[in-house]
Amino acid sequence: MKTKFLKLSLLALFIFTASCSSDDDKNEVVPVVTTKVSNIAAPQTGGQGQPAGGAFAKFSFSQNKLVTDNSWDIAFRGTTIIVNGGAKIGIADEPERTGSGAVSIVSGTFASVTAFPAASTFAQDAAAVYSIPTGSGKGWYSYNADTHIISPIAGKVFVVKTHDGKYAKFEILSYYKDAPASPTQTSESPYYTFNFAYQANSATTF
């Protein structure tokens, strides 16, 4: 009888331990870290009065890499950045929007943006509308007509609702290959370098 009771007790302890271990795995907190991505090539055809074209470079924050399927969150081509949410803008060769992505543009340093912006501040791509506006001084960059250099606008942080409802923030550091401190007209572009932080947990802060 004692032996049977001992076996039952050990079995109950094993089940309880396994259950706790499973719950701990489900509730594991993934640390939010800042990651630097360098030299994302985003060439386009056309331009200078001609319709722009060419494939977009599609990036996934959760995977920290370029992807070819529908798991992308943002995508780059020339100076254009689109999000995987909303509807097609109506430009050539743009990918389908299959996700729920949106973007909120926040003023501040990258480190200072720690809380998710209000839901009402997020925008999606739509017909003839970009969630991240295009054009010098309107979205993420300014263009110097004298030097022909494209520079990221300081203090612009982009908080992204990802294609699957998570959140990330990013800031663009450079539009030129190897991110030169002082790019010139001979610097190769477009090659994006940016910082990002991805929130994989259910928290509402970075």
From TrEMBL:
Keywords: Lipoprotein, Signal. Residues 1-23 form the signal peptide. InterPro entries: HmuY. The keyword Lipoprotein applies. It comes from the Bacteria. The keyword Lipoprotein applies. Pfam families: HmuY. This is Hypothetical lipoprotein.
